[in-house]
Amino acid sequence: MEDQYLIRLSKPDEAEHMFRLMRQVWQEMADKSLFAVDTLSLEWIQKSTTETGIGITAWSGENELAGMLIACFPGMDEENLGWDIGLPEEQLPYVANMEAAAVLSAHRGHHLEQRMIAFAEEYLRRHTEVRYFMATISPENAPSLRSAEHNGYRAVLTKEKYGGWMRHIMLKEA
Predict the structure, then answer these.
(1) Beta pairing class for 53-59 and 6-9
(2) CA-closest candidate to residue 33, choices 172, 163, 158, 171
(3) pLDDT tens for the chain, residues 1 to 174
(4) Rounded Cα gap, residues 58 and 79, in angstroms
(5) What does the DSSP 8-state code read for residue 82?
(6) How many CA atoms lie within 13 A of 70 on its CB side?
(7) CA 144 to chain CA centroid, nearest Å
(8) What is the pLDDT of residue 39?
(9) What SS3 class is residue 101?
(10) Engineering a disulfide at 116: which of 32, 34, 69, 149 sits with its beta carbon 3.0 to 4.6 angstroms away?
């Protein structure tokens, strides 16, 4: 399938566009528990894409933002998913959390989430010392589970996160 999407690192001035896209995708979801974005803010996206991680964007041929992904290095912070699965403390600095991914409904079917994950992983492998890629995904979110599994992630634990929502903790070793 030939398409006209450009996947690249986000720019600092795109945080507001990423925030709006993420909120729009969440608003359109029938089951809001599948995507825990209600506590994420524009400030969080700005910090996550410039200070503590990277942002990835997918742009359509019409120069429309079609999708976004944020990958963060949580370090020793409690948000590090390595804590959840019992990674040894000395390995925690090498974890990258794939924090949020969203694709507008008009652009689904082009495997943009899979492609953004792959782009983020390749970038992080080249520019950091990452050893573990991790994510949380609702067990009921079949499209995101397929994207992660296609990219080599596996569920290693299922537990309550984000105020009581069940999530698979997904892991891929770099």
Answers:
(1) antiparallel
(2) 163
(3) 457 999 999 998 999 999 999 988 888 877 666 676 666 788 888 999 999 999 999 999 878 999 999 999 999 999 999 999 999 999 999 999 999 999 999 999 999 999 999 999 999 999 999 999 999 999 999 999 999 999 999 999 999 998 888 999 999 998
(4) 26
(5) H
(6) 27
(7) 10
(8) 64
(9) strand
(10) 69
Cβ atoms of 100 and 44 within 8 Å: the answer is no
- Helix/strand number for the chain, H first, E second: 5, 7
Check residue 1 and give its pLDDT.
47
Please state, in angstroms and rounded to a whole number, the distance separating the CA atoms of residues 114 and 56: 12
Rounded to whole angstroms, the Cα distance separating 38 from 112 reads 23
Name the residue type at position 5.
Y
CB atoms within 10 A of CB 34: 17
Q: Which domains does the chain have, with CATH numbers?
A: 6-173 (3.40.630.30)
Q: What is the pLDDT of residue 61?
A: 83
Q: Cβ(30)–Cβ(56) under 8 Å? A: no
Q: How many C-beta neighbours within 10 Å does residue 13 have?
A: 8
In the numeric block, the tokens 């709006």 are attached to 20
